[in-house]
Design goal:
A hairpin with a 5-residue loop joins strand 7 and strand 8. The protein is globular and about 40 Å long. The N terminus is likely disordered. It has two helices and eight strands; from the N terminus they run ααββββββββ. It has an eight-stranded antiparallel barrel with strand order 1-2-3-4-5-6-7-8. By secondary structure, the chain is of the alpha+beta class. It has a single domain, classed as Lipocalin (Beta Barrel), CATH 2.40.128.
Amino acid sequence: MKFSRLAWRSALIFFLLVSCQSKPVTPEAVAGKWQDRETTMEFHADGLFILTGGDKGESYSGSWQLLDDGRIQVEFTAQGAPRTTFFHVVAVSKDQLDIKGPNGEKGSLKRIK
C-alpha cells in the first residue's frame, strides 16, 4: 500500500510539473501593438518594429525577429547610429507581454486592440 501512495504522488507531481511548463513563444503570439504607461511597441508580422513614447515622445522604427532562445532581437537607428538590443520574453498571453530588457529591467505591456 505504501508503494502505491508513493507512485500516485510521484505521478501527480510529474503531471503538475508538465502542465505548468510554459508554452514556447511564437512570432504570432508576439506580433501586435503593446503598451505600458510610457511606451508603445509594435511588432508587425512582416518584421517591422516601431517604438514610440518615452520621456520626449521619441519614435524609432526598425526590424525585429524572435530568436530560438525566446529573445526578441530589435534593430533600429538612434541618433544616426545603428543599434541592436534584445528583450527576453518572460511570458506572453493574448492580452499581456512580460519582458526583461537588456539590463535586467522588467516590463509588462498590455495589448492594444
